[in-house]
Amino acid sequence: MTKQTVWCNANYAAEYVDKLRQGLGQHQLILPTKVAATNLVAGEPDPTLERATIAFGQPDPQQVISLPNLKWLHLNSAGYTRYDTPEFKNAMRSRGTVVTNASGVYDEPCAQHLLAMMLGFSRQLPECRIDQFTDRSWVYKQTRYETFLLQGQTILIYGFGAIGRRLVEMLAPFRMNLIAVKRNPTPHEGVKVVTPSEADALLHTADHVINALPASAETENYFHLDRFKLFKHGTHFYNIGRGTTVDQIGLMAELETQRIRGAYLDVTSPEPLPSDSPLWTAPNCHITPHIGGGHVNEFDRVIAHFLDNFERFTAGKSLNDRIV
Description:
This protein has eleven helices and twelve strands. The chain starts with a strand and ends in a 10-residue tail after the last helix. The strands form two sheets. The chain has a seven-stranded parallel sheet. Helix content is 33%, strand content 15%. It is α/β, with parallel strands linked by helices. The model has no long low-confidence stretch (mean pLDDT 96). 36% of the residues are buried. Strand 4, helix 3 and strand 5 form a beta-alpha-beta unit. The longest helix has 20 residues, at 103-122.
């Protein structure tokens, strides 16, 4: 077996580094002096990466382009915006470097996070929580009769990747009308798949609009005021993609008119969201601090996911979650 040199700049505690080292067995592990603060931040160029055949974490994209000996890059995140450029992808393809990500780790928690908020809205849980910690009023009639069932409602899912596909599986028992939006639609069991232009014509039918779009030049402010005005009155909007994909001023305007009955944002622009941002007090806008993919055994699962792919790599098999 050819000995591999694995470079990792993920910010892992000693116990996780030990698990990684043990899983690599006879192969070498290199840890740079400076690690990436989180998997949302790219690391700095690092001279030790030049010795690696495999990179795990968030290396500097330009440095990766300059290293012809790198055989495989595995990102410890589902998102890969900084690597999603023609320059980077063409460089990887031209020399046969494989690039994979950790979408198989984060699809489950993100989909569960979305489902939790959908159920919260349907059962009026945020409103009840607000009442509990403000005037403690017993709003029986209004709250009871504003609850609703998901059955029969229509949901549009933008960004139909791993998260969207897992959400579709979770929603199957609710018997909803499921519509996914993709630039290049392909058939998928249990859901109708349409193009973005076709989706615009369907927005007036949607009870729920899920935004799982990645950040890119094409998706910046994708959900702008004019698109929000295509929503039917009373729509619920969810963003678990990236904050830059939403015109937040336009969103607040439509929350004021109640065209958007409720918004749930796990991502914002910027992050962290400043304490004086009007989003915090926008009507029926609920915010969590980019925790959609989080779970108590997250690092265990990310490392196990990498090591599973590492075994496949050393055995000459195809890798899971390949993006290049």
